[in-house]
Structure formats: C-alpha cells, structure tokens
Amino acid sequence: MEATVYMEKDIYYDIEEVLTMLSRKNRTKRPPSFLWSRVSDHVHRQILYMVAQELNLPNPRFIASKDLEKHRFKFINNQPLNGLYAYYKNSIPRKEGVHIITNICDILGIPQVSEDEWIKYIASHNIFSWKNIPDNAKRKVLLEACKELGYSHPLFIKNNDFSRKFKFLNGKTLTGYYTYFKNISQDIRGSVIKNICDMLDIEITEEDWITYITDKSVSIFWDVIPHNVIRKILYRAAEQLGYSNPRMMSSDDLKTGLDFLDGMSLYSFGSRFYGLERGGIRSIDFICDVYGIPELTFEEWLHFIAFYKHFKWEMVPKHFIARILSMKAEEEGKPNPRMLKVEELVKPSAFLNGKPLSSLYTYYSALAHDSGVDTITFMCDDLEIPDLNIEQWISIIENNDSKVTWGSVPNEICREILFMCAKELDLKNPRLMGYRDFCSTRFECLNGKTLSGLYSYYSLRVPSDDIPVVQFICDSIGIEKSTLNDWINMIASCAMCRWESIPLRVQREIVMRAAVEMEIFHPRLMGSKEFDSVELKFLNNKTLSGLYYHYAAKLKDPAQQITEFIFNSLSIPRIDINPKTGRLATLDNTSHRKYFDSLANIKELINEYLKHYDLKSLCRKYTFINNAKKAGIYRKGLVTILAPMNRKQYIDFLYEILKAVPRDWLGFRKKRNGDYRLLKSDLYKLAGIKEPDHEPQNRIMFAKPDLVPAKDKDEVIEELKNHKKILDIKVRKYHDIKCEYLVEYSGSFIFRMNTDSFPGEILTSDSGDEFEVIESREQKNGQGYIIELKALGYISEDEIANIKSFTKSSNDAIVASYIEKIIKDIEDDSLSPLLSVVLGLRKEAPLSEENIYVLPDDEYYDKNLLSNEAQKQAVALACTLDGINNVLGIVQGPPGTGKTTLIKEIALQYYYKGKNVLILAKTNVAVDNILEKLIQDKVRVLRTGNNIEFKSDLPYAPAVSTSNPAYMYMLGGKNKIVLGTPLGFYLDRNMEVENYDIVIIDEGSQMNIPETLFSLGFANKCVIIGDHLQIPPFPIPNEVLLEYDPLIDLYTSEELQKSLFEKLITDRNRFNSVFLDINYRTENPNMVSFISDLIYDGKLYPNTDSSYYKVPKQKRNVLFPQNPIEIIDTSEFLDPQTRSETEENSTYYNISEAMLSVKKVIELLEKGEVLEDICIITPYKAQTEKLKELFQENAKYFGDISSHLDNFIEQNIYTIDSFQGREQENVIINWVRSNYNLSGTYTRTGFLRDYRRINVALSRAKKRLILIGDFTTLTRSDNMKVQYIFSKIKNVNKNKKIVL
What we know:
This protein has about 1300 residues and is of the alpha/beta class.
C-alpha cells in the first residue's frame, strides 16, 4: 500500500509523530506535506488497533464506517478520523461489493475474526448490515439457532422462528438476519430458508425433504423442492401403485395415500398444476414434462392399455393411437384405418390381449358430436392418418349405405370427382356447372349417384346469397380460379351458360366488352335490346339474353329497371363523360340528354361564331343560325333551343351568355365613366328593339312539392338504421386503436396505428388528450398506417411516449344515439318540422317570387350584396323561413362566390331582430373565417369548443369563446351569434346546449349525413350552404363498409357516403335552392371562365364590378396576365426517368416537379411578387415534405429575403385537402403523378380521380395559376374523368376565348 513516488524520508514510520500531528488543536498547522498515503502500513495497522481498543472491539474488522467517519477519538485529543476514512474509501482499490474496512484489513494483514468471536460480537452489538458478516459466521449462527430450536435441520425453521429471542445471542432475535436473506433472494414463495441453506452450503438430503413433506407442522412449498427429489418421489409413488412409469398414473392416483409419505397423498402437489394453461396436455403428462420424466414407449402403452382397467384414451399420444388403429385395420384386412367400421372396432383385438377398441370409439364420438363428420373420419383426421385415394373414396361414396358426409371428403378428392363429372357434361371446368348439373344429373363415374349432397352441404355454408354456390364450392375445394380470358373462352364454347355460377367480375368484364363491340360509348347506355338481341363475336355469336333474364328473376324492386339493376350489381362505373354533351358528368348535369342542354356548349358555339362574324349578326336569331351553318360550326339541336324564343327572350338569352365579355372586345366604345361592362341595353340597340324596364331575374330554384310524394316512414327509418349500423361498427372498431409512438416532427407527433384516419378527424388518447389528424398514409408493407397528429392542448413528449391507444368513436357514439332518437321520434310522430322536411316525411309549403320577403336596399348590412342578385335572393329566402311551413333554404356556393359574406348577412339579419343564431361548419378553419368577418361588426359572437387556443388560428378567439368567464357573464341573457363545429359546440363543457332561432351550416357538402342531421337538431329552421362539386365528406373506411355488407355494391357504397347537402341540392323539386353565380376571388375573368366551363357547365361568372372592367384593353393586358393559367408540362422537356414519381409508404413525391417549383418561385420574386403572396399545393403529403426539404437546401438563392423563407416553408405549402377554404394570389400546383407501363397502355393517377379535389386545387388562385405536371401521364390516365380534365387543362391557352 505504501507509495513509491515519495522518497523514503517522506514516509511516516513513527506512530507518535503521526498521533502528534493528528492531536493538534490548531488544525491549520498540520504540515502541508502530510498525506495518509505517506503513512506506512505499520502505522495504519497500529491506528486501526487503537481505534478498535477505544471502541471496545476485539478486532479492527468490527469497526463500523460511521465510527471511523464521525467518532472523536481520545487518543488523538478528541479529533475525528474522517480523513482516514475518506482515504480508505476513495484511494485504496477494492473489488465491487467488498466493504471498505474489510478491504483495508485484508491489505494490512489484520487477522480474520473467528466464528465464535462473531457470535460474541453479534450478541453484544446491533447489526446494521448482515452483508458485511462472512458466510461462515452466518452459517454458524443458523446452525446454532436450529440447535437451540430443537430442529434436526435448518430446513424446518419457520419464518416466525426468526423473531424468537435466542439465548446464544443474549436474547437477540434474528429478524434482521431473515430480512437480509429474503431481500437478496427475491424468489418463489417459501424459498427463503432453502436459499439460505444453498447460499451457506448447508446440505439438504432427500430424506430431509421427505421429512419436510411429511411434517404436519410445516406448510409445504412444493416449488422449492429440487426437481430431482420430486422425480424420485414420483417414481416411488408409481412403483407403489404398480406402474413402471409415473406417466401411467391418473389424476385420481395422486389422491392415493403413499406409505413412504406416512399415508400422505400427492394431491396437494398435483393440484398446483390443474389451473395452468397446459395447451391441451393431460395434467399428469404436464407434471412429468416439468420434472423430466421420459415418455412411455409404444410397447409400454400397449401393455398398459391391455391390462389396466382404469385406463383413459386421452392419456395416449396421438401417434401411438394412429399405430394402434393401423394394427386394427391390418387385423381386419383393411388397407387404411379410414375404412374401418364401428362393428369392427367393438370386436376383440388380439394384439391387445382380446380387449376391443369400443372405448376409443366412444371417446371420439363425444369429440365429433358437433363436427359435421362421422366419428371414424373425425378420429382419423385428428390422428393425421393419410387420406383414402380416389378409388377408395368413390367406392365409399357410391355405396348406398354410406354414412359419409361430403364435409369429411378431402378437398383434393372432391376436386377430382368434380372434374370427372364436368367431363361427363362436356364442360372444360366444374365452375361452368350449374344447380341442375349438381342436383339432377346421375353420373356414371359415381355409379348413377348425383352431386346433390355436395351442393346441399356447401349451400348451407355459403356466407351470402349473393355468392354463387357453385363458385363457393369450387373456391372451397381449391379449384384453380380461371382468368378473365379463360372464363370468356369457356362461356363462348359451352352449349348453355349457367349465369348463376359465373363470378361477378367475369359478368362485369363481359358487359364492358359487349359495349366495346357494339360501339356504345358506355355500358350504362345499353338497353334491353342490346342484351336480348345482339350477337357477340367474342362470345361465339351468343347474346346476353341469359344474363338479362338471370337478373330479371332476381330483381325485387319493381320500380328499378333490369338494366340498372345489372349495372349496379356488377359495379359498372357511372358515366364519367356525358355522351350527349361531351362534358364532364357531374351531379348537376345528369339530366342532360342533348348537346345544348349544356350552357358551356352554347357558350363555346357563340365563342366560335364571334371569331367569324360580328355581334350585330349574332343579335339576329336566324342570321346566327344560317351563318353558323355556313361556317361549319352548327350543331344539331340549336334550332330546337332558339326557335321558341321571341326577339326579347333571345336578346335576354344572349345577354346571359355575353354579360362577362368586356364591351370593347365586342366593338363597343367605353362608357363615359370608364365602365367597360356590357349592358343589356347595348344588345337591345343592336337588335333594334326597345329596352324594357329593369326586372330582376329570379335566382331561386323554387321547389315543386306537388311533383314529389312524401317518403314512406318505414323506408326513412330503414335508411337511418343503415347509417346507425355503420356508426355502431365504427364505435366498436375504433374505440381502442393500438398505436406506437415514433417521433416528434415539426411540432407534430408521428404514430403507427393499425387503423386509417382522415385529416381533420379528432382522436382522443388513453390519457384523455385530444389530437387532430394532419395526415395519414398506409405503409406499403401492410403493417398499418403512419398518422401525423397535432396536439389540441399542451402535452410533454414523455406523456406522448406513454400513449398506447387512441379512440375516435366518442363522437360517433353521440351521433349514433341521436340517430336512434330521430328514429324513435319518427315512430312516435313527434319529429320536428325541420327534420321531417329534410328526411322527406313531409313537404314544405310551395313558394314563389310573390311569397319571398324582399328586403329594401337600405336594410342590407353589407351594401356590396346589392349588385349580386343571387346573394340578395338567398338572404330573402333565409328571411322568409318561418320554422313551420318553410324551414329550409339551400345555397350552392362554388369557389370564391362569397359564401362567408352571405352567411354573415343572414346572421346579422336575424341578430338585429333579437334572434339567437347558431353557425356550424365542418372545420375550425371555416368557423374562423366566419368569425373573422363577424368580429368586424362588433356584434355579440361566441366561439364554442374546448381548447380553442389550440383549435383556432385567430389570436382573439379565446377571448370571445366560452372559455372566458368574464365574456360569458357579459353575454348573459342577451341574444348572440354562436359559432363552432357540430360536435365541438355540443361537447363544449362551458355552456348548455339550447335551441336557436336559426342554424346556418357552412361546408354542408363536407359533412356526412348523420353529422348534418345532428346539426339540424338545434333549431327549427336552417340555411345549409356548401358545394357538392368540391371536397366531399371523409369516406367510410373500406373495412367498415365490408363489415356492414361484405358484398356491398358500388351504388350502395356511393349512396351511404354522400353528404346530406348533395342529396338535398339534387332533389330539385323537393327543396328551394339558390346557386351563387358570381366569383369574387379573382379579378381576371379568364380564370373564372376556365373553372366555370370545366366544372360548373358555364354557370359561374366573373365579378363585372372588378377593376378588370374599369380599365381599357391596353392597360388591362398589363395589369392582368392574358394567360393567367401557366402550364409547365414536364413531358415536353424531361425524359420519363427524370420526371417520374417516387412511391414512399403508399404516397408519392416528384423531385423534378419540386425543383421546378423552387425555380418558379424565384422567377415570381424577380417579377415583383412577394413570398407571402405565393403558395404551393399538391395532392400528396410526401410532396409537401419534399418541397420543404428542397426550399431549405436552396435558401441561398433567395438572397435578402431568405430570412422569410422559413415562414413560407411552414405556412405556404399545403396538400389540396388542407387548402380548401383558403385562397392566394399566386398558386403553384404539383400534380406529382408520372408513370409509364407498356406503350399505349393507361397510366395510374390514383388520388386525382376525384374531380372535386381537382376543382378545389384549380380554384384557389386570385391572380396567377401555375400547373406543373407530366401531362402525358395525366391525359392517358386509367380514369376517364382525369383524362378529360387534364386534356382541357393542357389546351386551356390554345383557343382564343371571347365568351367568358
């Protein structure tokens, strides 16, 4: 221990010298050179003995750390030795677990303490830690205690014995001793004393354990007894009972008293295993497995079965029973045990000393009771005995006395038999067989038997009536599924087609190919004649009459056409492009039957006409018609449209078409006040007729209740029950969504879940915190979904990491209960007038222009409405509602048409009459937009919903919300305008739900039917505003639809997922509605005209009060881009590989489009635009991430404004869905999709197939729209609507537009 770095003279060898230095009262005068490391080992040893002597200890090894650290010693003038202790603790090396004093005593060679000295020490001192006492001393203590207690072995010491006062310890107990060992041997119950013996090397013999077991004063802990001891006990027990192996014992044998255990049984030992999960293993075998007892040999089993009376078959391993059955079959001359009969099993078996196998049959007959197969088959299946071959099976099946069920016949045998039977019928495949083939045909290969039993067996098990039984049979027994071409070839070559056996996908393909061969634009245009009479070459000149009459027999609804029933059953898609008008088929133009039913087509014709002729000739009806014919632009049906019109009606008609065209485009001079709007009087002068007095044109589409019947109560209830069933499935399915937290990302939290969610949905965690879904995408490996969540309240990352599950069923449960209430109200005839009208159970009183309350101009709070007839009349309709006879107004508002402005005006009209107004919207963004408008008028508004500070982007929203008690007090008893989302309003914990004078619903087209019905329950009248040609409600997850109906067809699926707004707005004769036809978003009419013609059939017009119509043409071209829609087609300058998409976790990004976006933003900045006025939107979340990444990487190119770039990245890059309800001056769209297969084949465009999303994307820009995409991919899409839309977009700037 002595240091070698010091000179010999530096070491302290004199004890007196060291004691003198330690005894000084003035501690500051100690020589600076004094260190304990310079004190010799001899002096250290002397000091430790002096310490022990003063502490009255026989050996320094008994010194406690605290004594050395804190005691003031007389031999050094009452000074402590804490420095010495610190030196021993921190500077002397020691092994882990070795006590500090023990370590230094070992180093200094201080003698060990004897066992007797330890006992003497323990008897006179308090032991604070038995850990520091050596094992030999602890062993001596235990043996002395055992001796004093009178036990033969420490094993018999009980826990409470340690609490006794022991004489050899001067009356001390050993509770600390027991506690020490108990704490270090955290093990099974009762194991402490055994563990003590093991740790202290105290041997426990087998006889000790036998004595332990038979000692009635001891509680036996079987788990502490070693396995080898138990094993010997089990063998001794088996030997006493006459068995050679413990496995021959039964559970009852364990209850038998055993001589070597003084008459005690092993029941308490065995009972420990009875409640355990044994995986079907017999108790005694499970015990023997645990204790390593070998299995019985086959010969031992034969002997056991043959000679022991109380034998049970469940004891025997199955592979041995199979050998026994094989021996029995051989004895009976049968090649396979499956051919044995009951009579043969009950006969004596020579190999079992004359014992029969009747008990084996009885045992298995109980197991096979509900299996649907006979006992012998069940037994052989259970024992995995090889199946019979085909000849053996047929010999059994063709036997009239056979009791074999078809369920017991192996699939491969059924398959072979079916192919043999199909061959007899001259059919290539059993899938072409029909009901009569199975149930009426007697087959030679089956000795004249039919297959009716097989058909009957499977028909009882088919999961749905819509699944053909024959196909279910073929699928169940593994007949290979044919390809579409195989099916068509088989149908073409067979004499008669059994359509009930043909899969729906094949029927669908046949109908689609038939339409192509007949050169019919779309299969849904086929009529009964095409099915019944047209011979088809691809079917070997067969007709589809059999298919037609097959469905005619199944049709239950007499009001439905057979062809419509066929198309819906086969999920034939709706017509994407109207074949008569050539326009995009939307919900608004399904009634178009002629080319000029489309207003956009009329506009297009007049646009072409004005390229050839002047406006004056256009104002003369027949001149127009004749000139159109001369120019080759005439279309059939034009005369039909124009002929009934008189001169005034024709000019009015022309004005509606031309009213958005600047007058100077048409050759008129500007008005003196600089107004370039076309006036109706201009056309009247050209036509040479007198202009009549101004009459406002009616914009309300009045209902015609006389033309529609009230709906049947039972039908309405059934429809509501369907919606409730779906809600119940969602509640059940999503009440506990397991999740795995992955990472925090840009303020959001990323989880993996096994269930999909939709942006905007609210999820509640198992900790009770609310989160909004930002994005969801399916993992490509099928391992669930990656969900991005935003917390709607403060939560730490530690709390996030502890979340194990979410629920999204709470709102669904509330809405489901409300639907149930509506059903009860219908049954009780107590439903409110508003809900009765909405559900069609009663009709509103008819309205006309005379009934509408027209407000004087000075009563409008927003005077800008005065120039918009549609908005004015929408307000008038809302003010006419009385809550009894007229309760509902519907407003369709395309993008930018002033929906929020209209909502504000209706709300103020009611508010200033002292009424309470409720405004509900699907999203918090929409609610904030309305609140932002209303707050300007300083009216009493109230924002509802919990945690508003997290749900609203408006900084003042919490101040005017229910979470502000002072504000709530101020509002007390006064009328107000309340805003919120439906469930946010309902669940607001700071206010009571009450009834309102009117509810105004915004974004009605985004709410599903149950949610909208729920919203209608808060008032007696309603104005619902939306646009069913923009983003629809969240789709119902496929897994929910399939649980609702595994065979759901396309039509039913679409109907269930429609918004209530869509159902109402398209039921024109039942409900009054208004179409807002003026777009205020952009001042450039070219942009409005594009969306109008593409989506709204030309019915949407630009705002002619805008500055575009206030400046001359030259200045107009400078202020407003002539082509505000810029197309960047990557297929024109990038090769396919460079411009192609990249798939990532079932979402997509396109690096080339993202790079082009960066370049385009830089170009816009160079033209004088600012970052705040530019945004980028895209269908895919992955593309938004890629865009943000690229902008960060290229920040250096943004020069002085790079500091603003972070804000742009976070706030100006969106997905299309998240951007609905917003607008921006300059919008760049990345379409992302770019892929190619074989030349001439269709491309994949996935998410873009919904034209409503494309509508939202195209209608966000106020000034400039830049579209970046691979238009070769987009115009060759596998979706006809996508093809149509992007072909129009691609050519948007190629044709000169006059008519806007």
